[in-house]
Amino acid sequence: MKKELFDLVYHAQNGDREALYQIIVAFTPAITGARQKVKYDRQEDLEQSIIEIVIKKILSYDLDQVPDFSKFSSLFTNLERVN
Fold first, then answer.
1. Where are the domains of the chain?
2. What single DSSP character describes residue 65?
3. Tens-place pLDDT, residues 33-55
4. Is the pTM of this model over 0.70?
5. Does residue 1 have a pLDDT over 50?
6. Is pLDDT at 82 greater than 60 in this prediction?
7. Within 13 Å and on the Cβ side, how many CA atoms surround 75?
8. Region 5-82: CATH code
9. Is 3 in a helix, a strand, or coil?
């Protein structure tokens, strides 16, 4: 059974390396896509940089500020009014 991203982030922030690894694995297709858009000799460096940034963001993300569905929906409603 797969854990939700929120739960994985929570566990990763509490020292669970397996949860952190699962998040990185989940984002591997996007990382691979970005990697393929640069020259071959820079692909590994880019991949490592992206993974480093993802890890930093996971560990610093404030889970107390995650919007509920109503708040999330209102963000799109407000965006539509601007456009």
1. 5-82
2. G
3. 999 999 999 999 999 999 999 99
4. yes
5. no
6. no
7. 6
8. 1.10.1740
9. coil
